[in-house]
């Protein structure tokens, strides 16, 4: 996502949060947005979104792991080498949360050959 107020072209809307992407897609006929799989699936349940297939593959964790669905991104977390206990605890929490959720993958879940394509 891009910073608020950034104008790329008159027909492109750039927003700065996932909630703003959702709002803009809901309010703009024919629009396309990019959000995480869980957010998209939550809004499908409310009939507000349609998740598109790419190369006839559904957006799913299984299809990401097998490289059938290729439109996804790696999210990074950075800390200094000598990070505080609080920062280390937060990173551990996020890693556990990712493993507990059904909507996200950890590095360990994606084969290295597929992961390298997205780094």
TrEMBL record:
Matching SUPFAM superfamilies: Periplasmic binding protein-like II (SSF53850)
Record InterPro entries: Phosphate_ABC_transporter
Top-level taxon in the UniProt lineage: Bacteria
UniProt protein name: PBP domain-containing protein
Organism: Dictyobacter kobayashii
